[in-house]
Amino acid sequence: MQVQFNPELEDLELVTPSNAEEMDKLSELGVWQSNRSIYVFDMDGTICDSTHRHHYLQSVDADGNIVPRRGGKDWDSFFTAQKDDVLYPPIAGIMEALLSNLKIVIVLTARPESQRSESVRWLKEWSVPYHALFMRPEGNRTDDNDLKPKQLHTYLGTHVSRVATIFEDRRRIVHALRHHGFHVCHVAEGDF
In the 8-state DSSP scheme, what is residue 135? Predict the structure, then answer.
């Protein structure tokens, strides 16, 4: 089943200046004029191992069950600690193979725009190959389940139908994307 562009999911408030620059990069690469397949990769828990940061978002009880973190989620600390993430080599290998086969590789993250420079630095440090990095606008609190399909429809427009596969770790986002017709590879158990 091929995903069709849904204008009801388009949200122009997601188009920050930085995200617009990423859209321009794709245009300059001739992506919109080609029919090359697009592959989308989540960042936290998919490209990089973020498990060392999960304690900022959740706790584990005495029986080993994941429970809400006392005091709520500490997103600032969670994102600050991203500098210590390590790469998941198999995912980077898939990204590299896709690029070498002339596919379009996009990193789509719910990280806020304020984390762009650190995210780009990390991707460069680990030599992660990609064409564009799309991020959450600063101050946007849309649940990731709703955000990611909107991001795809907004940033890719009618070319959203060329998304071949999305690589994602969080089960609820995998389900949400599949609900919208996307083919999703669930790469890890990253429910945070």
Answer: E
Domain that holds residue 104: 7-48+89-186
Top pLDDT among 33 and 104 is at 104
Range 177-186, long-range pairs (CB < 8 A, 24+ positions): 177/148, 177/149, 180/3, 180/6, 180/9, 180/149, 181/1, 181/2, 181/3, 181/4, 182/3, 182/149, 182/152
Separation of alpha carbons 1 and 77, rounded Å? 40
Helix axes 144-156, 17-28, angle to 10 degrees: 50
Q: Which domain CATH number covers 148?
A: 3.40.50.1000
Return the structure tokens found at 47.
Answer: 């490209």
What is the SS3 assignment for 106?
strand
- pTM value is 0.87
